[in-house]
Automatic annotation (TrEMBL):
Protein name: Putative hydrolase protein transmembrane Alpha/beta hydrolase family fold protein
GO MF annotations in UniProt: monoacylglycerol lipase activity
Signal peptide: 1-32
Organism per entry: Caballeronia insecticola
Domain AB hydrolase-1: residue ranges: 91-292
GO biological process: acylglycerol catabolic process
Membrane listed as a keyword: yes
Domain of life: Bacteria
Length: 354
C-alpha cells in the first residue's frame, strides 16, 4: 500500500507565499537601487535661502552695499590675498548657472601664483541681493562691478570670465578699457546672436514660468547634455545642488523671477557685434565640446544644429577681436576649469600677460 501524501496546510501555503513575495520585493528593490545608483542623482537635496543662505563658500564672504535703481542692493564677494603678491589683481566673473564658489580651484591657483583674487556674485545671483524689481543690463552689472572694485582700491585688473560672465566682461572692457589689464574669456556665451539666428523671443512671464519648474534633475540633464557632452562626474553634483537648493527654499519665487529677468537680458543684449571695438589683450580659452545656446530648445528643429558650435564660434571671435589669442581644449566642454583643472590652469597661467 502506498503511503498517503499529506496536503500542505493552509498556514504553510500562506507562509511560503509570503516568503516568496518578500524575496521578490527585495529583488525588485535591489534592482531599483542599482538603477538609481547608475543615474547621476535624484531630485532630493538641501534647501537654501534666496541668497544661498546655508551653502558654504570656500573663502570668507563679504558684502558690498550700493544704491542702484532707487534701492540698496548688496553684492557678495570673496577677496583672497596671496601669500606672495605679484602686484596684480584678477577678477573672476561667474556664469548664469554658476556662482563665485565654483571658481575655488582657480582662486587657489591664482593666489599661489601671486594674484589677489576678487570673485563677486552679481546682483540677482547666488549670495547677492535678488530685487523684487530691477532692470538688468550688462552695463548695469558692469557699473556694479566697477563700484565694488573702486571701493576695494582696485584701479586696474585682469578679468577672467566664464559663460554669461564673458558677456559681462566684454561689456566691462568696452566701458572701462583703461582699467582692464587683460580679458580672459572662458567658454563665453554671446559669441553669436541667437535672436538673429532664429531663436524666437518669449516673454519674461514665460521665462518665469519655466524657471519655477527648475529642479536638480532638470539642471543635471541640461548640464550633462549641453556642457559635458553626455558625461557626468560626482564632483559636478555639489554645484547642481547649489542651484537647485534655492528653488527648494522659501525664496523660490524671487529666485525664479530674477532668473527670468536675467535670461531676458542675455537673449536681448548681444555683445558679439562689438568685438571689433575691444582694445585690450584678450585670451579665449574654449572647450570645443560645448554646445550652449540660450533658447536652443525654443528654436525650430532645423535651426538647433546651427547654434552653439563653439569650435567655429571661437575662431570667428579670434578673428574679430584684435590681437586675440585662442587656446582650444578639444575634449572639454563648457567648464574646462572644472573638467580638467590641471590643463586649464596651465593654459591660463601661460596666457596671462606679464
Amino acid at each position: 500500500m502506498k503511503p498517503m501524501r499529506r496536503k500542505p496546510s493552509i498556514v504553510r501555503t500562506l507562509m511560503l507565499s509570503l516568503v516568496s513575495c518578500i524575496a521578490m520585493s527585495c529583488a525588485l528593490h535591489a534592482h531599483a537601487d542599482e538603477a538609481s545608483a547608475a543615474q547621476p542623482g535624484n531630485d532630493d537635496g538641501p534647501a537654501y535661502g534666496p541668497e544661498l543662505q546655508g551653502f558654504d563658500y570656500p573663502y570668507p564672504v563679504a558684502s558690498f552695499a550700493l544704491t542702484s535703481q532707487r534701492q540698496v542692493v548688496r553684492m557678495a564677494y570673496m577677496d583672497v590675498h596671496p601669500p606672495h603678491p605679484n602686484g596684480r589683481t584678477a577678477v573672476l566673473l561667474h556664469g548664469k548657472n554658476f556662482c563665485s564658489a565654483t571658481w575655488k580651484q582657480t582662486i587657489e591657483t591664482l593666489t599661489d601664483a601671486g594674484y589677489r583674487v576678487i570673485a563677486p556674485d552679481q546682483i540677482g545671483f547666488c549670495k547677492s541681493t535678488k530685487p523684487a524689481r530691477y532692470q538688468y543690463s550688462f552695463q548695469q552689472l558692469a557699473r556694479n562691478t566697477h563700484a565694488l572694485l573702486t571701493a576695494l582700491g582696485v584701479s586696474r585688473a585682469t578679468l577672467i570670465a566664464h559663460s554669461t560672465g564673458g558677456m559681462l566682461a566684454v561689456r566691462y572692457a568696452l566701458m572701462y578699457p583703461r582699467e582692464t589689464e587683460q580679458l580672459v574669456l572662458v567658454n563665453p556665451i554671446g559669441l553669436e546672436d541667437w535672436k538673429a539666428k532664429g531663436v524666437p523671443s518669449i516673454s519674461v512671464d514665460d521665462w518665469y514660468a519655466r524657471e519655477l519648474k527648475t529642479s536638480a534633475d532638470g539642471i543635471r540633464r541640461y548640464e550633462m547634455n549641453t556642457y559635458y557632452a553626455g558625461h557626468w562626474r560626482a564632483d559636478y553634483e555639489p554645484w547642481v545642488q547649489m542651484l537647485a537648493g534655492m528653488y527648494r527654499g522659501p525664496g523660490k519665487d524671487v529666485v525664479a523671477w530674477n532668473s527670468a529677468l536675467l535670461y531676458d537680458m542675455i537673449y536681448t543684449q548681444p555683445v558679439v557685434y562689438e568685438f571689433e571695438q575691444l582694445r585690450v589683450p584678450t585670451l579665449l580659452l574654449i572647450g570645443d565640446k560645448d554646445t550652449t545656446a540660450i533658447g536652443k530648445d525654443l528654436a525650430p528643429p532645423d535651426i538647433r544644429p546651427t547654434l552653439g558650435r563653439y569650435p567655429d564660434l571661437a575662431k570667428l571671435a579670434k578673428e574679430r577681436i584684435e590681437g586675440a589669442k585662442l587656446v582650444e581644449f578639444p575634449e572639454l566642454g563648457h567648464a574646462p576649469q572644472m573638467q580638467d583643472p590641471q590643463a586649464f590652469h596651465k593654459a591660463l597661467l601661460e596666457g596671462l600677460t606679464h
